[in-house]
Structure formats: C-alpha cells, structure tokens
Amino acid sequence: MFDCIIVGAGPAGLTAAIFLTRFRRSVLLLDGGQSRASLIPRSHNHPAFPEGIRGAELLSRMRGQLGRLGIEPVPLSAKAVRRLPGGEWDVETEERVLRARHLILATGVRDRLPDLPDVVSHVRAGLIRQCPICDAFEVIDRTIAVLGHAECAASEALFLRGYSERVTLVPLGHELPPVWLRSLAEAGVRVEPRPVRRILPEPGRGVTLGYPDGHEERFDAVYAGLGVEPQTDLAESIGLSLLPDGRIGTDAHQRTDVPGLWAAGDVVTGLNQIAVAMAQAEIAATDLHNHLRLQEGRTLSQ
C-alpha cells in the first residue's frame, strides 16, 4: 500500500514524486515511456537554462534527482484504475495490480503530427515544431509555415506573425471560414490555397513543401498546428468529468472532483509549459501531503 501512485513520468509526474518523497511519503511512479517532453530538441524558455536544455536531458536530470532520494520510475503503464469502497485505488499494469491511498494523474497530452515518415525524429531534430510559445523567439524574421486547418492552426499563425512578416498558413487542402481568412489577411498572414502533397524535412536547410502542380516551397521553420489529444482514458474510465477542451479540470489545489484524485501537467486545463506542469505538481503533492497530515493529526487545520 503506497501513499500515492503517480501515473506519468514527465516533468509533472517526476516533480510530484520528488516532492512527495521529500515529504517522506511512500510513492510509486509509473513511467509509460511516452513523455511529450522527451521530444523537445532544445527548450530556450525554461527558466534557469539560458543556453537551453534538451527535453531528454531535463528528464534525465529529474530522474537522477529522484534516484538520489532512493526512488526510480517503474517502467510500467497504467491500463486501468479503480477506486475501492474504502477510498483506496487499484492501478492495473501489464504485470500486476498496485494499490495506493491516493492517485495523481500526470498523463499529459499527445501532439497530432503530420502524416510523414519518421515524423517523430523530425520533431526531435527541430524540423517540425510543436510549440510557438516555446520557440518562436528562435525563428524571428524567418520564413514560417503552419500546417493545419483547425482554429488552433490559425491562432498559431496569428501568434507567429508577431515574430516574422513571412508567415504562411497551409490548411492541408481544407477550406477556412471567411471570418478566419479576413483576420489572417488583415494580420498579413498568407494562406496557401494548394494542398500539400509532399513534406520534405532537410536538416540544416529547413523544410520543403511540395504542391500538386510540382511547385516546391522551402520554409525555415514549420509548425504542426494540428492540436493535441489529452491522455484522459483513465480519467474517463472512473467517471471523471472533462472540460470542453477535453482535459481535466481541477481546483486551486489540483484536486479533481473525485475524492483522492489529483491531476497535474498538460492533461490539466491550462498552459502547456514545463514550468507550469512542474508548479501544478508541486501544488498537488503538497496538498496531498497536507491531506495526509490532517488524517494523522499532525496539523492544526480542520
């Protein structure tokens, strides 16, 4: 019986594990091996790293910090979770069922990527980008393409317009609502009317887009504005209500509307940033610890 099982070993899950372990709580951290942060080629906007840091390196440092506390992530995925009549939690993995008094979901989101061979390797190399909030500063005055036809793609193109006058939205053959087209035109964002037939990343040169008429166009940076898929299967399986954006809603202490269940990181509604995920995890871990202190009679609060 653990005090807490944490599902997801990205920045949020690792932070929660570090805090709870330092609170001297028994913790099990499940690592399904799919942290979105591992795809980051180099983050330049994460505080305290002025030269930037690779996502894989950041995760490695955090795992090392946790390891010095005597805890290692367990390379298992949570297949199902169930709240028991007494309030405890069973977490089913591919090997065994684990039990804890409390649960933190840090399952994150998954980026929707273009239909492109080896697309994950292109993301890791920084040829296909995912987060203009993270790295638009690094493409100031460059030629930029945003792929996608949903509202998130149009919004990204407008956001990037503040960094370059050469921004093109490529709707991948889909038509855009007239009101979006007016906003894009007024902001100086070009909309490419031709569907893309070929996407060719060229290391050191950018990305070339090929059109049906044989014309090719090279961009210094290409963003996949295709949105994300919140990883909420476990949350939904226990009846947790989701917000309109498909993610988990929490209160100011990262508590969900299911007793004994906290959530933190990109799976929670809010800004998808490493620092935000870590802060949410700190809040969740501290609130969980204080919840246990109250049960133990080690606090004056009621």
Automatic annotation (TrEMBL):
Does the entry feature the keyword Nucleotidyltransferase, yes or no? no
Stored InterPro entries: FAD/NAD-bd_sf, FAD/NAD-binding_dom, Ferredoxin-NADP_redctase_2
Pfam families assigned: Pyr_redox_2 (PF07992)
According to the entry, every stretch annotated as the FAD/NAD(P)-binding domain falls at 2-281
Taxonomy of the source species: Bacteria, Pseudomonadati, Pseudomonadota, Alphaproteobacteria, Rhodobacterales
Q: Which UniProt keywords apply?
A: Flavoprotein, Oxidoreductase
Q: Which Gene3D superfamilies match?
A: FAD/NAD(P)-binding domain
Any idea what this protein is called? Thioredoxin reductase
- Residue ranges of the TM segments: none
SUPFAM superfamilies named in the record: FAD/NAD(P)-binding domain
